[in-house]
Specification:
Blueprint: H1 5-8, E1 21-23, E2 31-33, H2 54-71, E3 72-76, E4 85-86, E5 92-93, E6 99-103
Keywords: Heme, Iron, Metal-binding, Monooxygenase, Oxidoreductase
Family: Belongs to the cytochrome P450 family.
Pfam families: p450
């Protein structure tokens, strides 16, 4: 199902995160997230056959993120970044946020 052109379009193989976003009505630059039901995008399956390891996988992803953040410092790549951001559920910078990753000692 995750390769179905009927569900995802003819460009199903391309990485396009905007598949899960829709524009707010009356706005040209406000987006909101659209969660797909687990039957449409069955990464961990759904219903009575939901993957038993789903919760463990989520915990492992969190542990990996924490381990990386404990080992590396993430700092801005530029000292004078402009603070142009878009309002959303979570704020994000319009032109990205270039960073440098430095190993902690």
């Amino acid at each position: 199902m995750d390769t179905s052109p009927e569900l995802w379009g003819s460009d199903w193989a391309e990485f396009r995160p905007e598949r899960w976003l829709e524009r707010r009505s009356g706005s040209s630059d406000e987006w909101y997230f659209i969660a797909r039901d687990p039957f449409t995008y069955p990464v961990f399956h759904s219903g009575p056959r939901t993957c038993l390891g789903k919760e463990i996988a989520v915990v492992i992803v969190k542990m990996v993120a924490v381990t990386i953040l404990k080992r590396f410092r993430i700092i801005p790549a530029q000292d004078n970044l402009s603070q142009n951001s878009d309002a959303f559920i979570t704020s994000w910078m319009k032109h990205g946020f270039p960073i440098r990753i430095i190993e902690r000692h």
